[in-house]
């Protein structure tokens, strides 16, 4: 039996624009998905999922990859448990050079699902690591990131960037631009506070909406370019440890994301609650439409304000997690 864990992430800057080749800076946070893989003596896969915000459940399917169990739970949860785990196991078999193997897989996660915190990437990264170790093979973090990206790419119909999977595998703050992914060293302490509205945005739909705007209006395309410029400015602020400037740029980034239609009333409400509480900056994180905002605040004020904000279901501090995937 082998267990691995991998962190979720927030986007400091750059979601959506990263889809069009602009840079983005996701940061791993101390909220993890833990995946346990235990080899079975048949070729079936049994997945038990706990703590995934929604009620836990268990499914068994198997033999051939591509088949899906018929269970009555919301689609994102089934995909998290089957599509992503199926893909992770396929990658592990490929890495270990094994034609087939069955596993009992347990997923435990304290990352809200589909909320812009990279829950699926963390499950895939930890899943590949646990299953390959269970087969006696150890992969580098880079190779895990690459294989996890292939899985996300397939499950999300080619819409995914490398941001979530690379960040989850490597930990820390990272810079992603197309296929060029690297860790950013010596980042200052980033006092993240996360607010979660309990909703899920449909990433595919949101990405398609931005693409349509971008293809229709030159100024929407310019907005995407402006997000790229903002990220480049943010990288300098990160290098200089200028947290105040990072906050200002987060505010600006949220405005640009709102302009391309991916914010929502509850995300805006949480962003304004954070700003009014004295946060250095606040923005939505991830695909948007609902889910999470991230703010920067060294004090407890934003956390407290979010706890009392109508529509904010959960608020928590989230330290930068310098460690990516790891055996447990
Ligand atoms: O909501 P998340 O964490 O899956 O982030 C989506 C970020 C996008 O830039 C909109 C898409 C992507 O794959 O980068």
Summarize the structure in words.
- With 328 residues, the chain is an alpha+beta fold.
- It has a six-stranded mixed β-sheet. A four-stranded antiparallel β-sheet has the order 9-10-8-11. Strands 6-7 form a two-stranded antiparallel sheet.
- 41% of the residues lie in helices and 24% in strands.
- It has helices spanning 75-96, 119-134, 141-155, 163-170, 203-216, 218-240, 243-259, 265-276, 301-307, and strands at residues 2-13, 25-39, 44-50, 57-62, 103-109, 173-177, 180-184, 192-196, 281-284, 292-296, 314-318, 326-327.
- A hairpin with a 6-residue loop joins β3 and β4 (57-62).
- α2 crosses α3 and α8 (265-276) runs antiparallel to α9.
- It folds into two domains: 2-185, Ribosomal Protein S5, domain 2 (2-Layer Sandwich); 192-318, Alpha-Beta Plaits, CATH 3.30.70.890.
- The radius of gyration is 19 Å and the shape is globular.
- Residues 15-16, 18-19, 116, 118, 160-161, 163-164, 203, 207, 286-287 line the site of (3R)-3-hydroxy-3-methyl-5-(phosphonooxy)pentanoic acid.
What is the topology?
Elements (H helix, E strand, L loop, with lengths): L1 E12 L11 E15 L4 E7 L6 E6 L12 H22 L6 E7 L9 H16 L6 H15 L7 H8 L2 E5 L2 E5 L7 E5 L6 H14 L1 H23 L2 H17 L5 H12 L4 E4 L7 E5 L4 H7 L6 E5 L7 E2 L1
Helix pairs in contact: 1-2, 1-3, 2-3, 2-4, 3-4, 5-6, 6-7, 8-9
The site of (3R)-3-hydroxy-3-methyl-5-(phosphonooxy)pentanoic acid has 14 residues, from α4 and α5.
């Amino acid at each position: 039996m082998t267990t691995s864990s991998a962190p979720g992430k927030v986007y400091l800057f750059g979601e959506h624009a990263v889809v069009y080749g602009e840079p983005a800076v996701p940061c791993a946070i101390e909220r993890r998905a833990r995946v346990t893989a235990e080899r079975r003596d048949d070729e079936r896969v049994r997945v038990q999922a706990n703590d995934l915000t929604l009620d836990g459940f268990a499914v068994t399917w198997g033999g051939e990859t591509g088949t899906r169990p018929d269970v009555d739970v919301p689609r994102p949860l089934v995909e998290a448990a089957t599509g992503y785990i199926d893909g992770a196991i396929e990658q592990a078999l490929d890495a270990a050079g094994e034609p087939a193997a069955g596993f009992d897989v347990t997923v435990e996660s304290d990352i809200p699902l589909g909320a812009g915190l990279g829950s699926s990437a963390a499950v895939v990264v930890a899943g590949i690591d646990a299953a390959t170790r269970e087969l006696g093979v150890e992969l580098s973090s880079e190779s895990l990131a690459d294989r996890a990206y292939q899985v996300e790419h397939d499950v999300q119909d080619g819409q995914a960037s490398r941001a979530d999977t690379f960040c989850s595998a490597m930990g820390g703050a990272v810079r992603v631009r197309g296929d060029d992914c690297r860790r950013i060293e010596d980042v200052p302490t980033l006092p993240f506070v996360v607010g979660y509205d309990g909703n899920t945005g449909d990433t595919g739909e949101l990405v398609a909406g931005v693409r349509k705007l971008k293809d229709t209006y030159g100024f929407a395309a310019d907005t995407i370019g402006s997000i790229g410029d903002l990220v480049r400015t943010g990288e300098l602020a990160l290098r200089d440890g200028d947290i105040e400037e990072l906050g200002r740029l987060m505010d600006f980034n949220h405005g640009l994301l709102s302009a391309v239609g991916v914010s929502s009333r509850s995300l805006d409400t949480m962003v304004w609650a954070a700003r009014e509480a004295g946060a250095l900056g606040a923005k939505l994180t991830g695909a948007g439409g609902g889910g999470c905002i991230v703010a920067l605040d060294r004090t407890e004020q934003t956390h407290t304000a979010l706890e009392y904000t109508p529509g904010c279901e959960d608020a928590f501090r989230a330290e930068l997690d310098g460690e990516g995937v790891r055996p447990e």
